[in-house]
Amino acid sequence: MQTFIPLKDFVANPRFAEQRAQALAGLNSGVIDPPLRSLAQDINQLSYCFTLQSCYGHFVHRANQDQYNLAPLPNQDPGGPILYRLAYLTLCLQENQDGRGLLLALVDLGRLDPEYIQVGCAQWFWDHQVNTFVIQVEPEQRKDQDTADVSFQQAKHLEQVKGLVFKRLRRIVKDRLGAD
Q1: Which entry of 47, 145, 157, 180 is 20 to 30 Å from 77 by CA?
Q2: Three-class DSSP category at 11
Q3: Angle between the N-to-C axes of helices 152-179 and 97-110, in degrees from 0 to 180, rounded to the nearest 10
Q4: Which of 88, 73, 87, 85 is nearest to 153 (CA)?
Q5: Pick from 136, 110, 107: which is nearest to 4 by CA?
Q6: Are 137 and 161 contacting, i.e. CB atoms less than 8 angstroms apart?
Q7: pTM for the whole thing?
Q8: Over the stretch 116-158, which tens digit does the pLDDT of each residue have?
Q9: Which residues have a Cβ under 8 Å from the Cβ of 168 and sit 6 or more positions away?
Q10: φ, ψ for residue 43 (rounded to 5)?
Q11: How many Cα neighbours within 13 Å face the side chain of 3?
């Protein structure tokens, strides 16, 4: 399924507060991958954004066939193909100074490794909720796909990059919580 598209410009959304309240009221943290739950909770404390969907990223391989596994990759190549299910976070941002500032921080984060980190939009989300933005960890050549077949070496790099992205994103959000 093709999902990722380049960044769109913000549009006016006078219903943002209402939509945020509805989204947060319907949020079931039990469906969020455990490593991302506290990050999503912190993000949702910011008055100018809310989470829509996320995935911690999963590696499916000979040694672990669970498509939702959260285990780190083994130290040795398990042999055979490795299917990577992309790591991403989709946010709806308010069209204001704080929302624009957070988007700029995401774009800066994407510059850490542009071959593996993309910041943009997903048309499906935008069609349902304007001003939605995605940060994802996926090989650039597969950025518009939900999955990618990768080598063990590439999988190890993806694992490192997604750890860095989520760690830095936590710091970005914590800094904004202190200022909010």
Answers
A1: 145
A2: coil
A3: 150
A4: 73
A5: 136
A6: yes
A7: 0.94
A8: 999 999 888 999 999 999 999 999 999 999 999 999 999 999 9
A9: 109, 112
A10: -55, -45
A11: 20
